[in-house]
DNA sequence: TATGAATGAGGATTCATTCAT
DNA sequence: GATGAATGAATCCTCATTCAT
């Protein structure tokens, strides 16, 4: 999570620093065609910077991917209970969680995470951590929303895992299978499964 | 869907014909490192055939992927009701569906489908069709298992879509997020959501 | 020491096989400008082959150097006493050794050996082995030529080492220092040092 | 031959000025890996100075090499007869010459001189001049040590040339051939060749 | 059908050098 | 003087693909 402030140099007429433009271009291209199919030359061209500059900031191509994952998929450091759980309203609670989703990642970044997770360890690890985070929040939200602890713990975990999967992968589920899975509808489904 | 029978040549000590060995090698490699990162030379080496032979069978590299998807992700032509739905037992019905899953695809092929779906139209289409098939079967199974039509149609569709997603992507969900989502448990969850 | 016979293909109008032409070109260029300053593209151009072919035969640039050293600096497998030592004529014996020098290496190869020995282990090792071979032959020749064992053993070794150095490095001594050191004259000098 | 005194700047915690540190780093690196294989960036890093500063002091990379050769291989301006020749003791005289060797060059600089002489005219010239200087001194020393002029002039020159070669290249002889050639022993050998 | 040499476009990466600050 | 971002030519190497045998 870089916070270095970069000054606008005279060589930067676009007003965004070169490093950021490189990451922007890479994000769009990796999402569209995949990491391997995207050449560094193309990233540079789309970013409007000379080829060499990509390597000035990112010594290896893989470092571009790593930087994207590091800097653009940060899990917000929300207080655990930032999403106010409404006792008796698990569906609404999950829906709110979905909306205040802690994953600060563009649809493009999600596609990248998803696609490259299987082949690049660091990406896979990050995706695993994100999934775990969402899972834990969902479980906690459900526990708070269902104070009577109706429904055993095991089922609650299955519910949380299912919801996390749908939430994280919705982007890809939609694109790959051509079918939208609406998180709100799933939230409602799950609430029914757990509730009265 | 090829069914051509190939004779065993004298150069084929493994007892499998060259074309099959090429596809086997490609399946393993594409799953492990992705299509773009796998060279035709490597496929040939792993298959134990000369480089030129790959192009004898598959004029272009992409044809290897297409053949894999065509020949190794076939949706079985099951009769619609091959999975006997037990009225009153939606959970069991879904579980049986999961077990008699119509997708004849190795874990490796599922990873390939999944990974390349976003960048190769033909793969994406195939995945979409598979997902649709599973979705339709799940919906039909639920309709039969819940004859009273309790729960409206919309919720039933959400349930079928969720179940299809978990079923198709379980391979990847497990691998990517490090968390198993047991189809049987999800079946039970969904049954609760729809049932009494 | 390759002995593979290469057929003359129709694509080889020069009548020398491509691999040999690549090595010829590399030998000349490495000797003239050094290994690092010689690009693979230039080798290919001078050899009259496409760039890619260099890497077909030599997966890495360094392999070209290694092949040169392996195949073009072979120590002849002469019987130990192939150079007939004339008792009483150490000078003549050394001169004959110099002329029937066991190092089958062009002046170009000697310059390459010399220059790259310090930075490429395999080259350095080969040079060391060559030097050792020449040293041992010179010592043996002197022992045979001076049967009375006049002059102690230590001095004889110094003589052999000095002669080996002059013999192996004459190419470079001449070029680098602009001064020829005639092996025959050194042979005569050494004979005087050891003889009556 | 620079003699400019450089002040110690506040950015120079090592207490050596930047220019000197650059040359020190270059000397070590050129000796270890060769001129071509050493990037200016690496020199800067090893010297602990920013990349730009290298080009401030040395407008071109080659200027670093030239400066090293100019400033660090100086032939001492000894009076011709600084090495007292002892008539009748040529071995001792040569040994003393070797010890009071006029070449002020570190082992590293000798390796550089040696390696780059063949490809960089200025280095080659300097090496030639050094070799000539040592040769002339050795010849003069021998003439003085052997007043009777026994041994003809031609043999004396061969002796001087051989001794100069051993002296100048001992560093490399040892390193490359793994065999030490002791200058004192060679001096003694040569004395025998010329003396009674 | 089988084989591997041949081809050249393209890709990642390096690097000397410039220059605004 | 000091700094490091910027530049683009050049380098090593990969690879799909062709083709003569």
TrEMBL record, chains A, B, C, D:
Entries under SUPFAM superfamilies matching the protein: Homeodomain-like
One Pfam family matching this protein: TetR_N
Keywords, ordered alphabetically: DNA-binding, Transcription, Transcription regulation
Coiled-coil positions: none
Residue span(s) of domain HTH tetR-type: 16-76
Name of the protein in question: TetR/AcrR family transcriptional regulator
Chain residues forming the annotated DNA-binding region: 39-58
Organism: Actinomadura keratinilytica
Superkingdom of origin: Bacteria
Taxonomic lineage: Bacteria, Bacillati, Actinomycetota, Actinomycetes, Streptosporangiales
InterPro entries attached to this UniProt entry: Homeodomain-like_sf (IPR009057), HTH-type_TetR-like_transc_reg (IPR050109), HTH_TetR (IPR001647)
């Amino acid at each position: 999570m870089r916070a270095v402030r970069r000054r606008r140099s005279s060589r930067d007429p676009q007003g965004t620093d070169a490093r950021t433009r490189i990451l922007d271009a890479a994000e769009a291209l990796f999402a569209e065609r995949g990491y391997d199919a995207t050449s560094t030359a193309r990233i540079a061209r789309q970013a409007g910077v000379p080829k060499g500059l990509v390597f000035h900031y990112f010594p290896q191509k893989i470092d571009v991917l790593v930087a994207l994952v590091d800097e653009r998929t940060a899990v917000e450091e929300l207080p655990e209970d930032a999403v106010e759980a409404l006792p008796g309203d698990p569906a609404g609670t999950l829906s709110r969680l979905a909306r205040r989703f802690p994953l600060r990642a563009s649809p493009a970044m999600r596609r990248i995470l998803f696609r490259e997770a299987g082949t690049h360890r660091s990406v896979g690890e990050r995706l695993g951590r994100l999934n775990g985070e969402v899972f834990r929040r969902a479980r906690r939200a459900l526990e708070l929303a269902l104070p009577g602890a109706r429904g055993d713990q095991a089922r609650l975990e299955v519910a949380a895992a299912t919801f996390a999967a749908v939430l994280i992968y919705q982007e890809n589920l939609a694109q790959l299978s051509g079918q939208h899975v609406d998180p709100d509808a799933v939230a409602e489904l799950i609430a029914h499964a757990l509730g009265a």
